[in-house]
C-alpha cells in the first residue's frame, strides 16, 4: 500500500465556473440591495449608521453562490492588547481577525479587521474596520465577545469585496441617500385566483423533532361533518376454562 508524502501540499479539488455561470454571478453581484436588507445603528452626533447584518449577509451569500458554493475560514486571530482595571476589575481588549472567503473555483478574499479601543484607533489603516470591547466583567466574556464580533465583521468585509449585493453598496453614499428614503412595503402574500399560495409564517413548514411533531388531524366528511376514523378490529379475548377432569382448555372470543 503506497503511503503519501505527509509534507506534500494537498491539492484541493476546484470546480471551475462556466462562462454562463460567471455571467449569472456577475449579474447578481452587481445588483444593489433593497431597503428591507439594510439596518441602522446609532452613530456619532445622533446620526444613524447603515449596515448589513451578519445573518442577512450569510443568507445573501447562500442565495448568490449556493449553500455549497462558498466557504469561510479564520486565518488568524492576533491579540493587540488586554487591559484590566485595578479598581473595578473590568477588562478592555483589542484583537485582529483575518477571515478568508473562498468560492468553489478557488477565488478568495480576506480582510484583516481590528477590534480595539481608542488607543488602537490611531494605528488602524483607513480601509480596516474596528469595534469596541470595553469594561467587560471578565476576560472570558471580553474574549468571547471580541472574537465573535471580529469574526462576523471580518466575514462581512470579505464578502463585500465580491459585489454590491453582498454589502458593498452600503458604502455608496449616493445610493444610500436614495434607498433610505424608500418605504419598506409590508410582506405581500402570493395570490393566484384569489387563493393564498404562501404566507410569511407557516408552522407547517418548520423542521420539527419527531417527538414534538404535530399529530395529523383525522379527515372530516364535508357532507356529514363527521370525522372519519379507521375502524379498529375488535380485540380478541382469551379465556381459560377448567374441564371436569381438572385439565385446562383455552377458548378465544371476539
If you had to describe this structure to a student in words, what would you say it looks like?
It is a single chain. The chain has 254 residues and is an alpha+beta fold. The chain is built from five helices and eleven strands. It has helices at residues 19-30, 54-65, 118-121, 139-160, 173-179; strands spanning 38-42, 48-52, 70-84, 91-103, 108-115, 190-192, 195-198, 220-221, 226-227, 237-242, 248-253. The chain starts with 18 loop residues before the first helix and ends with a strand.
Essential attributes:
254 residues; three-stranded antiparallel beta sheet; two-stranded antiparallel ribbon
Which value, in Å, is the CA radius of gyration? 31 Å
* Largest sheet geometry: 3 strands, antiparallel
Mean pLDDT score, rounded?
75
How would the global form be characterised?
extended
Number of separate strands: 11
Helix percent reads 10-25%
Structural class: alpha+beta
In what order do the strands lie side by side in the largest sheet?
A: 3-4-5
Which band does the percent of strand residues land in? 25-35%
Spans of at least 5 consecutive residues whose pLDDT stays below 50 are: 117-131, 234-239
Q: What count of helical segments does DSSP give?
A: 5
Amino acid at each position: 500500500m503506497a503511503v503519501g508524502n505527509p509534507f506534500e501540499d494537498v491539492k484541493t479539488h476546484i470546480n471551475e465556473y462556466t462562462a454562463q455561470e460567471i455571467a449569472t454571478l456577475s449579474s447578481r453581484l452587481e445588483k444593489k440591495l433593497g431597503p428591507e436588507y439594510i439596518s441602522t445603528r446609532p452613530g456619532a452626533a445622533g446620526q444613524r449608521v447603515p449596515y448589513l447584518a451578519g445573518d442577512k449577509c450569510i443568507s445573501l451569500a447562500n442565495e448568490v453562490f449556493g449553500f455549497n458554493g462558498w466557504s469561510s475560514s479564520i486565518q488568524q486571530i492576533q491579540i493587540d492588547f488586554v487591559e484590566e482595571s485595578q479598581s473595578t476589575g473590568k477588562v478592555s481588549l483589542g484583537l485582529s481577525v483575518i477571515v478568508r472567503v473562498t468560492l468553489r473555483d478557488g477565488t478568495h478574499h480576506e480582510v484583516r479587521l481590528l477590534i480595539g479601543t481608542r488607543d488602537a484607533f490611531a494605528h488602524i489603516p483607513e480601509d480596516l474596520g474596528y469595534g469596541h470591547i470595553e469594561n467587560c466583567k471578565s476576560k472570558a466574556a471580553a474574549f468571547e465577545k471580541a472574537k465573535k464580533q471580529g469574526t462576523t465583521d471580518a466575514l462581512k468585509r470579505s464578502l463585500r469585496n465580491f459585489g454590491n449585493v453582498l454589502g458593498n453598496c452600503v458604502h455608496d453614499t449616493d445610493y444610500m441617500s436614495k434607498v433610505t428614503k424608500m418605504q419598506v412595503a409590508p410582506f405581500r402574500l402570493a395570490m393566484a385566483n384569489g387563493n393564498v399560495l404562501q404566507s410569511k409564517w407557516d408552522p407547517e413548514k418548520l423542521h420539527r423533532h419527531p417527538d414534538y411533531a404535530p399529530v395529523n388531524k383525522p379527515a372530516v366528511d364535508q357532507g356529514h361533518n363527521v370525522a372519519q376514523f379507521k375502524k379498529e378490529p375488535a380485540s380478541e379475548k382469551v379465556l381459560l376454562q377448567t374441564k371436569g377432569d381438572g385439565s385446562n382448555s383455552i377458548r378465544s372470543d371476539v
